[in-house]
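Two folds, back to back.
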Amino acid sequence: MLFYLKLLLRNAFRHKLRTLLTLVGLVVAVSAFGLLRTIVDAWYAGVEGSSSTRLVSRSAISLTFPLPLNYAQRLKAVDGVASVSWANWFGGVYITERNFFPQFAVEPASYLALYPEYRLKDEERLAFIRDRQGCVVGRKLANKFGWKIGDQIPLRGTIYPGTWSFTLRGIWDGAEAKTDESQLLFHWGLINETLRKRYPGRADQVGVYIIGINEPHNAAPISQRVDALFKNSLAETLTETESAFQLSFVSMSEAILVAVQAVSLIIIVIIMAVMANTMTMTARERLAEYATLKALGFGPGFVARLLFGESLLIALVGGVSGLLLTLPLAAAFRAAVGTLFPVFQVSELTMALQLLAALLVGAVAAAWPAWKMSRISIVAGLRQVA
């Protein structure tokens, strides 16, 4: 076995420049494949981080149409509903438009109870609930702007005009890597009080209701009961699971995601063609050597294994190097895009696919040369020596 491995290594690096260039191509292709797949995964992070015990109820017309606040009490009476909270998209600007991050006005106690994955210290949770001007943020967002407890965070309202200032009362850590840590939450009551004074017609309205259920397998009938409750009213509802709600946003970018996935596969096909050309040239140059091996008694299978082994060895080195390069590339990309992707990490599945793609490239690239060389006649091969 050791002899065989040494033979593969010597054969693989016999033409150093060609092998090095092939490796560079493999590293670039595998790392690009991994990075593009990570971008697609990041797009679906909201779906992956959703809970099966939460439903989202919104206006049946559009998400931009609010629902009355008095729906909350009626929702609590629906069979199967365990708890109810609500949230409004705020859409404020922190210093400049470049500092985009999600901000929601929520009912603090009930909302945090529905999101146990937001791990907040008890004293910080209590301080947030007690302070009408308070807010809490995810760890990732706090680190980005260097915020600490007690800091004042001013936001320029777009949907809700004016400058709003919040006191940071807590910073949550995600229970899992896929938990969103890029949001800011503050009191829904604060903006509602302001709206009552300035724009009474816009007060007592919420963007979406978050509904907690204890039996996820009954999500569909509970959703139907909720929607039936408000059917033929002035504000009919559309209730769905949280994952379905998140998927509705992802579907808006479906064409872009398909394009990104197609490009990642095309990159692998291109490097496969380059690798196949390399192995074909290698086999042609060693035609006489393979004929000599056959003359010495080595069978066609040995010749084929030599070519497959050499190709897989190069592919494995390139694949592992590309995988390792993906990690710093992903970190740099995550830093560059900021909070655009709440969760951006190279998954274990992506790393496994990178290695699998590299090995597939190595196997396919060696298939034709190995088959051809295993069938070469000794006479035809030795004629090359002459």
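---
second:
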Amino acid sequence: MAPLVPEILSSEFNLVVAFIVGIAFGFALEQAGFSSSRKLVGLFYGYDFTVLKVFFTAGVTAMVGVLLFAHLGLLDLNVIYINPTFLWSALVGGAIMGVGFILGGFCPGTSLCALAVGRIDAFAFVGGSILGILAFTEGYPMLETLFNSTNMGPLTMNDMLGISPEFFGILLTIIALLAFYLTSKIEDKVNGKTIEIPRDRKIKYSLTAVLPIVIITLIWMTPDKKEYTLSKMDSAQISEVSNNFDTMTIDKLAFEIMNNVHEFNIIDIRDTTAYKEASIPAAINVPFENLYNREWRSMLKQPYKTNVFIGDDMDKVYKAAFLARELGDTDPVILESPVVEFREVIFNAVEPIGDVSKTDLTRYKFHIEAAERLTEIEERLKNSLQPPKKEIKRVQGGCT
């Protein structure tokens, strides 16, 4: 159920959901007639191409859904598991499965579906499958070399062809439509009869056939959620948006770090090299280029701490706050001065001389105290500033 696990579903509840989805899948297979070996092997004899049509329809529907959800920012394609390709073992295994499909009339999934509705031939097929699994397990040492040969990693067809996912989606949809048309003609010829389709139904079929191509074309031609958000951030005029954010002075931030550091995430958006050279005590480093990454979303969205954005390039700092707000941070705050100025004011305070006001003298004493306290905090938190790194991994799974 990736990518819902573990963000939305726990690993344990994932099994319950998988069980329910499995039942629904089996019900759909049975309703489509896939518990009948006669219907399934009709694909090979040319009198019934329902299998091809159902699986092509399912593939195109899933493909359009994945592309659309990814385009809208609802699905992260980087966490979807893709089975690695072991070329030779896949070819040999596919040939064995194809022969078994023709001889037995079932594939592994449909045989269990037929077994569930009590078909006698399915019992024999499943029994043979179990014997095959046992034989493979016992013979694995002899087959291991072939099984693991030609590992090409997680490949996708569009990567292999060097084209965009959207272009491949349109090609696959057109291929599916051609396959539907040609296999219908073959069915008519083999069965010796022509199925007449009423005109109004032809119109509905045509519109349904065009819909995936229209959706994929729109996905291809329009910017996705990330591109739109980053473009919106880039085009934002700082002079126009700066009044929309709360700001914090150097003295205010120093005071809050000294007394209420647990209420703030101080986010240094500079590159890691600049951060390591010198930053503000208690600050964590999230380089500007990484701020959109998924692992930082929970920190930006959390309601318990105030996110304070700091940096040396104030244009970038405002853009970071703008992006954070787009990603769910309801009230980002900006340090109104660069990091280098903060450090200069606090850690290199210059004693006022001559006829100075009481305010200037008080401020100088505060800077001296702040430098001492912040140095202590900096030393204490030196090894524990960055939050635990949250790695985004592909969840293992899929039909292997």
